[in-house]
Amino acid sequence: MRLIGPIKPIVIVLTALLLSAALLIPAGAQTQTLTFVLDVEAFRKLEAEAIAQDLRAVGATVEVRVWERTALTDRIRAGERQAYMQDWGSAYFDPFDLGVPKLKTKDRGNFSFYSNPEVDRLLEAGVTGTDEARRREAYFKVQDIIFQEAPWIFGYFRDDTHGAASVVENWEPAMDSRINLHDVRLARGSVIVVALNTNSLVSLDPAMHRDRKSETVIRNMFDGLVTRTTRDRVVPQLAESWRQTSPTTYEFTLRRGPTFHNGDPVTADDVVFTFERILKGDAAGLGQRKGLLGPLQKVEKVNETTVRFTLEQPFPVFLQAIVHFQIVPMKYVQQVGDRAFAEKPIGAGPFRFVSGTLDSQIVLQRYDKYYGGSPALPPVGPAAVAGAVFRMMPEPATRVAALKAGEVHIIEDVPIDLLADLERDPKASVKTTQGTRVFLVELNTARPPFNNVKVRQAVNYAVNWDAILKNVYRGHARRLATAFLPSGFGYNANLKPYPYDPARARALLREAGYAVR
Amino acid sequence: MRGQVILRRVLATVPLMAGIAVVVFVIMRLIPGDPVDIIIGQGAATSQDVERVRQELHLDRPLPEQLLLFLADLSRGDLGDSFVKRKPVSQILLEALPATIELALAAMVVALVVAIPLGILSAVRQSSFLDRLSMAGAFLGISMPAFWLGLVAILLFSVRLGWFPTSGRTGFLFFLEPVTGFVLVDSILARNWSALIDALRHLVLPALTLGAGLMAIIARVMRASMVEVLREPYITVAHSKGLAPRVVVWRHALHNALIPTITVVGLQTGVLLGGNMIVETIFSWPGMGRVVVDAIFSRDYPLIQGAVMLYTLIFVLANLTVDILYTYLNPRIQL
Predict the structure, then answer these.
(1) Residues of A in contact with B158 (CB under 8 A)
(2) How many Å apart are CA A132 and CA A259, to the nearest integer?
(3) Which helix (DSSP H) or strand (DSSP E) does residue A389 occupy?
(4) Which of A82, A195, A409, B335, CA to CA, is 20 to 30 A from B226?
(5) Where do the domains of chain B lie, and which CATH numbers do they carry?
(6) How far apart are CA A383 and CA A366, in angstroms?
(7) What is the pTM of this model?
(8) What ipTM was predicted for this assembly?
């Protein structure tokens, strides 16, 4: 009895000490797991869950959170998020609008806050260099460095999948998303109908949009100095030829013969007017496409058929850039004003505007006096079909239904799950081409846990991309080793993507101080 | 006298719209998302280009200054230009409105033509086979999502049977001079009967899809209010006076039973006139629902503000119309 007295307070004190020790001493480094939130938009949620599963299998604790795109971008730019699924499109077949904005220090699309002065220097050399071999070498070095430093979980690019009725002849989708109806024939019928994947076009004025769908319709009504094959080769269109007279000047010689839909001939004045309108326009208005011209400084008429472009510094993708600028008729635009021009556009392309509204349909008619088009893209001559209609159909199931019902001939952007249906249908076929958009998981390299390169490499080894791509995209997606597309300049085909190696992932995580499974 | 009351109520809407616009103005600028970022998108642009866009849209100014600029423009009746489409907001809304109104009215007509007789019949023959069938149908109508119903309708009636077109407001073979913007009205004015038939054919499936849920709600409300009214003592008096059952229902009961029903109809019309993004997307119908949802996702502030003000006006007018109708149905109710 006398022992219990002193023992009770001792037991109480010891218990209190042990409890506070357990609560106050932080968990040792050996029990800390890699924990983070993976942000995603609704349309890639399944993919995010699969990636999270792969990461959990090596011992990470991952939560997938679904966001609205705009709100997510806002928080990413504020530096608050850790890992986020992203995508970025490229129009230039060159790292200029892909690798550069995403990897250069503080550039517009650099959401990983990645910063490496060596990479910046190499990218600059690639963008402004004049020697093709040296440019390629610089981009190859960038790919090597980026691969090692792994600011992203490198992802993939997809095929663009479209549908066409069997009566459509001589149509292949273009990699730059342009639906070119000049060369297309119909086995039956004289008016071709295309269903576009959009609610509404933005404008029929070539200067007043930043939208591929509007550009598709515009490029059937307007021709440019140059255009592209369905792949990436630049070929002459309204221009007969061009030469680069210095690293910063280009001279284009216009073809004789092309006319606008109102009969006016296409002259050097029209070309100068087209580009000056953009160079001098409001940044939110007529000048909104100025950034796409890079360092273009001035455009001047040399003579009736020659125009000179002067750049501030060398810009090797200049030719790729001006594919996206179509020539407008100076006299007509000055006469009716910009607004009326956008409502009743007149260009020098194979089809003329008849009627329509941007949110419903645009009706075009063959321009019989068309000069013929690019000699590099046969057949040359007026369009084969008498008319063309572009209908806005934002719902993919409706586009497929319309194709099956025979209401439309070509449909854009068929989702993967509807492809099999079209492939089985004898009256339709699926047409694919390589896409120019990169899909990835971007990591915030400015804060834990992804400020540690070992962790970044680990997560690259941990994800089983082949399984994910096979299940989600049924063979219509291909892995990328880094941030460069095979269709773009400077792509290193010998650099293989991170292999699926969970053991290596675990080893790297352990080295970085995390507990693994 | 009455005209004055109506006028007063309409004019009172103006400060209401302005107040709501200010609330929306402030809220939009507080939620995450940068309109300039969306406008520039992923295209090549220097940081100077981005700053210039921000300046041109006045988004670099402090919030109170932006609000004052907005109110100054508003007092002149200028709703501003859409950030994304670079066109006046009033023009965009006015262009989308006729399509929305056509679809809304068509859906409402379809719903009323089916639902009111059905509701009345169900109430008069309570617990009969017809009553049970129509109420079960109503239950289905409310439960079926518009998305599913629309796609099924397209697959069945357009692809399989070929009776109606899959989507759009008109075909492309008819060129109508846009006089009023209402395709049905314009085709009648132009005496272009094939264009009229074409427009009607395009209207059927979207109107049915949109009307299905409405039909169900209105039928149920009609039945419930009719059942209530039929229990009133004055109905018993009418029967005992020897009046035929049909007369009792149509001349004595109906106008009172309609009061709750037109309340619902009025509210639903207000909702319909705001557009329905889902039905518009499925049927590629160029209405306001799509415009506004797009505007929200692209943080197109002027367009969102203009649209909300328009919705306010629509709701006030719809409610006012209902209130006026009440006075005809029941003279004891004063405006």
Answers:
(1) 401-402, 405, 407
(2) 36
(3) strand A387-392
(4) B335
(5) 20-75 (no CATH), 95-329 (1.10.3720.10)
(6) 6
(7) 0.91
(8) 0.90
